[in-house]
Amino acid sequence: MGTTPSALRGRRALVVGLQFGDEGKGQLVDVLAGDHDVIVRFNGGANAGHSVRIGDERFALHLLPCGVLTEGTLNLLGNGVLVDPGVFLAEIDELRARGFDVSDRVRVSERAHLVLEHHRQEDRLRGAAQRALLGEAGFLGTTGRGIGPAVADKAHRDVAVRIADLGDRRRLRRKLEAVVRWKNAELATLARLAGEAFEPLDARARCDELEAQAVRLKPFVADTAALLRDAVAAGRRVLFEGAHSALLDLDHGTYPYVTSSSASGLAVEAACGVRVADLGVWGVVKAYGSRVGAGPFPTELDGPEGDALRVRGNEYGTTTRRPRRCGWLDLVLVRHAARTCGVDGICLTGLGVLAGLETLRVCTAYRLDGRRVDAPPADAVALEACEPIYEELQGFEEPVDGVRRYEDLPEAARRTVDLVERHAGPVCRVCVGPAREQMFERLS
Ligand code: IMP
């Protein structure tokens, strides 16, 4: 018990969150990156927010893999990533300004789809129209980064724009002008439903902007699937960095309150052509719950207890700065996510935030319609109606941020680790804070 399973000591690994995002995946990827040659983002877009603390510096990355912060790694954005060119270039520029010139170490797939201004506008206007027409009940509360509309266009195909379209300037202009004409008609309808004035997008200005971005993007564009195949064939060590987390997965999450892409890690196969069965799968779990945006959250703590967790855990969105909803750890949801993703081992974060609480509560089952249930219902309304059944654990008084060895954790903190292990899988690493050195292996 406690030592890292052999599956996680292989040459290829996947990191995936097992809650609603913000479990601390960035920290684990940053630490593991030192043992890998290639880091791959394969899903989602700039709606993700991965934060990494190095020394006194904090880095918030939305599109680039956290591996860029490790010298010598090659970082790929695969086919399945939705690339907002403005965000991508701004992250490259910001890193350069902070001493990381990553131009030679980042490559983006020519097959990746672009997220453009009309997607961001559509995202926002759909939200406003949902509120106006359907009220709060129909409101999803997206990050506003244009991800849903970009995924919908990818499926529609007729108005989608991919990185591969950037190569031919004249063809790009013709295409984008047509797309903007189409989108202006759609956006005007949404604005009308939302009761807002609408200023149509200027097709020429949009084309000029994208053309300028295309020039800067060109050196980064590659056939990332081929790069990945070559890396695997050469026996290089590859780490897949999941974004958003399993409970936000379009197919396996708390639908419809999910993101619009596959966030369970299973997307690695479709997006990158690498078998998940060949990867060691790390699940990241935070010792309490948090969620941004709308959707069921059975263990949510309204009021002062939730507010206290938010402040102690600095639970404000990396992407939107929205205050996160906070609550107790829900092992029913974590167990479902761990099974979905087939995790080999767990990295448990956030223990330090619980220090000082007299009693800790962990949900291990629900009561629904008078019956005990051990798995989350598929229907979001039923999940909302679930009453958590808690196990109570004694809290621990002393701060644990300074702890560097598992055996130095207070007994009460270790009991939380045991409970997670019993329900979701072997806990192999523990984090007591956001810095690199605050993560340690569980060796006993
Ligand atoms: P969208 O992905 O912007 O469409 O947002 C859909 C839902 O997923 C919203 O509730 C977001 O707050 C949530 N969401 C999407 N990505 C993340 C993430 O990386 N962390 C936390 N919540 C996220």
Descriptive keywords:
alpha/beta, Adenylosuccinate Synthetase, Chain A, domain 3, Adenylosuccinate Synthetase, subunit A, domain 2, 2 domains, ten-stranded mixed β-sheet, 34% helix, globular, binds inosinic acid
Question: Which helices and strands occur, and which strands form pairs?
Answer:
Blueprint: E1 12-17, H1 25-33, E2 38-41, E3 50-54, E4 57-61, E5 74-77, E6 82-83, H2 85-97, E7 106-109, E8 113-114, H3 117-134, H4 147-156, H5 169-194, H6 203-217, E9 221-222, H7 224-233, E10 238-241, H8 267-272, E11 280-286, E12 289-291, H9 304-312, E13 325-327, E14 329-330, H10 331-341, E15 345-349, H11 351-354, E16 359-368, E17 371-373, H12 380-385, E18 387-394, H13 411-424, E19 427-431, E20 439-441
Parallel strand pairs: 1-10, 1-11, 2-5, 2-10, 5-7, 6-8, 7-9, 11-15, 14-16, 15-19
Antiparallel strand pairs: 3-4, 12-13, 16-17, 16-18, 19-20
Inosinic acid (IMP) binds next to helix 4.
Q: Mind explaining what this structure looks like?
A:
- The protein has 444 residues and is an alpha/beta fold.
- It folds into 2 domains: 7-107 and 224-441, Adenylosuccinate Synthetase, Chain A, domain 3 (Alpha-Beta Complex), CATH 3.90.170; 113-220, Adenylosuccinate Synthetase, subunit A, domain 2 (Orthogonal Bundle).
- The protein has 13 helices and 20 strands.
- Strand 19 and strand 20 (439-441) form a beta hairpin.
- It is globular and about 65 Å long.
- The termini are close together.
- Inosinic acid binds next to helix 4.
